[in-house]
Structure prediction request, 342 residues.
Amino acid sequence: MSLKAGDKVRFLDEKGEGVITRFIDNRQVLVQMDDGFEIPYLIAKLVPAEAPAKPSPLSATRKEAEPETVYSPVAASEQVIYTDGVFLVYAPLDSKFLLSGNFRVMVFNMSSSHIQFSISSRNLGKYTCEFAGSLAPMQSCSVRDIKTSDIERWATLRVEIQFYSYEPFLPREPVSRLIKQKVAKFFKESSFSSGGLTSEPSITLDLTHAMQRGQEEEYFEEKDLSRIVLEKESRISKTLSVRSEKNNPLLEWEVDLHAEELTENLAGMSNGQIIDMQLRFFQGKLDEAIAGNIRKVVFIHGVGNGRLKGEIRKVLATLQGIRYHDASYSSYGFGATEVEIF
Prediction:
């Protein structure tokens, strides 16, 4: 018995049927149910929903001349298996127009945990939630159909993921990361790969691991973190100095602590190292503001899981001659702390 993506199948061990969407490996496939959810199933436990009609001599002759394309798993060393992670997929709506058509953005939860997630786009330093939802293990969902004109906005996304289970489980670190891609990537045929999470060629990003396939991991040591902070401080100090003298007679500063604003490459950095980098930069700017008689500083730390905000306020609570509180909600939401220096 040979099965391929798109075949309608029945389950041997239970009532129900669905359509094969893709092959996970040589033993398992993903089957899409009537409700749109996909579940993994053993190939040995599936049979065609309708037995094929007996071919006529004419059709048999045609089959010899033009054999039907049947799925044949590639060697394990060549096949990319997407497991134990959460993946963002850009799938062309029409594979005939791979480089100029529209895309369907999808999320695949191939982990053993339930997830809650959100995807936000960025514009002028602020974020807008484009989609939020939850997925059970081995499920997927469509996020948005986008046009070619939307690609620039959807090439840079903020992704937040929380993992949980209704059974005893080992805690897994939440994901909070910025996904940046070059727009040109969507117009290069080499960016698309087949045999992945969808039946057609698509662009697939691993959201749960720091490194994408094909990249070398970069390990950040303490000296690297110090260098990043010093370089960023040097660039921003000049900007703030000019801005303060010309445009701000009250000497008010605005300091963005988002990790992607401090360094262009977060690859290989753990959550702890990122927090440490942000706190070092915060402490350096606070010291500089106090020494320079700056009256007010707004530190933009974002919402996230609240850890950076908590660490910042622990430091501020130990200092005299300052007062701090949430910054203007209309300007920053809940993502900033305003510090007044006396």
